[in-house]
Write a structure and sequence with these properties.
Layout: H1 12-23, H2 31-49, H3 61-71, H4 76-83, H5 87-101, H6 106-115
């Protein structure tokens, strides 16, 4: 992680605190900057990603839904039935995800999705 402070607040004690936080995989950001960052991420999501059907994780709504159902253990046929798509469409979505994200198989896709907090 990273730690940020303003130059005027960069005392030796404060820098030591920030280094410890960063070394422990933490991070610190002044509250007003954090608020600005969150506002910008929200605008990005609302104005650019959302209208295109893409989430903050870079996956489309359909890709997220397919991954969740893969995680639930459904077969291609079961996923197609659940989402009202053809089996061919579901196979194409899984193939696209596998190619783009380098998944070796469904178990790898599931593990990756869990590790990254997608499901």
């Amino acid at each position: 992680m990273r730690a940020v402070t303003r130059r005027c607040e960069a005392t030796p004690l404060r820098l030591a605190q920030l280094l410890r936080a960063a070394a422990a995989n933490g991070g610190e950001l002044p509250p007003d900057l954090l608020g600005q960052l969150l506002d910008q991420v929200g605008q990005l999501n609302r104005n650019l990603l959302g209208p295109r059907g893409i989430g903050l994780n870079g996956l489309t709504n359909r890709e997220n839904a397919v991954l969740r159902l893969v995680a639930d253990g459904l077969s291609t046929r079961g996923i197609a039935r659940e989402l009202a798509y053809s089996e061919r469409t579901i196979k194409a979505v899984i193939q696209e995800l596998s190619t783009r994200l380098y998944f070796r198989n469904r178990a790898h896709a599931f593990a990756h999705a869990v590790r990254n907090g997608w499901i």
